[in-house]
Structures are given as C-alpha cells and as structure tokens.
# Entry
Amino acid sequence: MPDTVKLASELRAGNRRALSAAITLVESSRHDHQESATELCGELVRAGTREAVRVAISGTPGVGKSTIIDAIGIRLAEQGRSVAVLAVDPSSVRTGGSILGDKTRMGRLANHPGTFIRPSPTNTSLGGMALNSREVVFLCEQAGFDHVLIETTGVGQSETDVSGFSDVFVLMVAPAGGDELQGVKRGIVEVADILVVNKADGQLKDSALATVSEYRSAIRLHTPTGSGPEGFPRVLAASALEDSGLDEIIKSIAELTGWREANGQWQAMRRNQNIRWMESRFREILISRMKASDSVQNLFQRIGPDARASATMFNPEVRKALEKLADNAMAKLEDSIPAGR
Ligand SMILES: Nc1nc2c(ncn2[C@@H]2O[C@H](COP(=O)(O)OP(=O)(O)OP(=O)(O)O)[C@@H](O)[C@H]2O)c(=O)[nH]1
Ligand SMILES: [Mg+2]
# Structure
C-alpha cells in the first residue's frame, strides 16, 4: 500500500512523479488502489484545496486539438502560468495512433519544464476512465497547476460529458461551406463558450472566415441575451500553423472566467460540477451493489425466461416489474435520508 500522506504532500509540492503515481492510483480499477485513491483525495482535501481553470478543448478527430493545445499551452507557460494537459475520450476507445500523436503533436509543451502532459490511458473501459477524469483534474489542481487543458473528442452522454467538469468549453470546428453548421444543429454550441474555426490558413483561410461569420449569426439567433458576458459564446478564427488567433483564445478564456468570478457564477458552476460528480459516483455505487446482489440477480434469472418466451424481449410486464422494484428501492432510499442537512 502506498504511503498516501507522503504522496499527498509530495503532490502538493508540485512533484511530477507523485502526480503521475497519484493519477495511476485514481485510474486503476483494482480495489486496493481505489481505497488508496480515496485516502489520498481525503488527505488533499484536508490540506485545503486549490482551484485551476479547467478548459475543455473539444472537436472531431483531426480538427487540430493537440496542435492548438501545444501552441496555447506554450504561450500560457511563457506568461508564467503552469499548465497540465489531459486527454479524455468520452465516446469510444481511442485509436491506437492517438497516444503517439499526442506526444509528438505536443512536442514543444512536453519539453517545457513547467508543464505536465498525461495522455489518456490505453485499454481502459469507457465508464471507468471518463468517471475518474474528474479526480484526475482535481489531482492536477492540487499539484498547483493553474490551467488544466482537457483534450476530448466530443460531447458525450451526460455521464461521461467533459462539459460536466470543465469551466470553459472550447469547441473546435473545421472550415466548412454552405449549411454545414453541424454544431448549431446538434445543440453542441449550447455548451460551447468559445467556438474556434481552426485551420484558418492557406487555401482554407477564406472558407474559415466565412464559417466564422456563419457561426456568429447562427449563435446570435440561438443565444438568449443576458445569459453570459457580452459577446459570448465567442466565435474565433485560428491557425496553430500560422500562430494566429491564439492570443484571442487565451484572452477570451480569461475574460470569461473573470466575468463569472465577478458575477457569482463561478461558485454556482463549481457547485453544479460537484453535484454531477456526486450523481455519477452514486450511480456507479448503486450499479456495483446491484451487480453484487444475489437476490437481484436471482430475480433477473427468474423473470428473464418469461421475457424470452413472450413474443418480444421488451416485454412490458417485465418492464413494469422492474419499475416497481426501482420504485420500492427509491422509497426505501428516500426514507433513509435524514431530514435537513
Ligand atoms: N492547416 C492546418 N493544419 C493543422 C492546424 N492544426 C493542426 N493541423 C493538422 O491537422 C492534423 C490533426 O492535428 P491534431 O492536432 O493531431 O488533431 P486532433 O484534433 O488532436 O486529433 P485527434 O487527437 O486524433 O482527435 C495534423 O496533421 C495537423 O498538422 C492548423 O492550424 N492549420
Ligand atoms: Mg489529439
């Protein structure tokens, strides 16, 4: 068993190796590792927590997330900020090449002494990895980083959604012509704070600028006034290749977080993130208890054959029985909650 008190104090002192070891513990599915991880988080909370700005950088594969994180990260580091970079994939198992891609595409940042880069773990089950990402972000904050940049391939389901634990959501899109404003249609823009039309260089430059104006007018239509600072969600053109638009992204992140702090929204947002963390943990615990319960498993075995015998697997009688079971469980659960705080 690792010495979690020592690990916590090394981590808080900014020791990279301690941070890596702590992340490995948190991401492990081994029971004893999970116990140590819980102990470690407890130590860190007792020591007094620190907060970083959590920035999610999202977009389809190949849009240029890693490249822009490298460029933005270096700029932040040169401004005296400390940057941690994480990769989280909420939607699917990452392709084999991506880890190598991250390392080579974040070459400048990887060699910067003040920064920390953690690619997403390989062969980790979908749920486990995305669930524990919250803890990984927390560990980076406690190690003293003031910016945590989270690379992610998209907006997942609510359970695994990175927007549930990031403060600023940057959505990257490629230049597109005509009516290809995918993000607006799918409602992704609703969670985006900053929309970056990337690769605004060379032959793609004109089309990128046209895409920017299309998004700007689409967003004006979709955004209720008074829901945020003036000019947000912001649409920007950028090119990591030509080093353009990057300062505007950094400034927009600072402007937005500054506004939220000044308007009492930062606390509300963090509170909301904590509640989502609790929901997600509670769901996970309930499911593991359900799987471990012999009587529940026996019940499934009992009603299972009936469901197969009927014409459909989605037998409404079975569904009703399951709903009743869940209602009974909820009633007991609600009864067990003490009144007040
Ligand atoms: N023209 C141009 N190409 C770019 C720019 N940024 C990235 N690219 C290229 O786009 C490709 C993908 O870049 P990545 O940064 O790896 O993209 P990603 O979104 O991190 O990709 P995944 O991690 O696989 O989802 C690479 O070949 C980059 O060289 C840019 O600003 N302009
Ligand atoms: Mg990448």
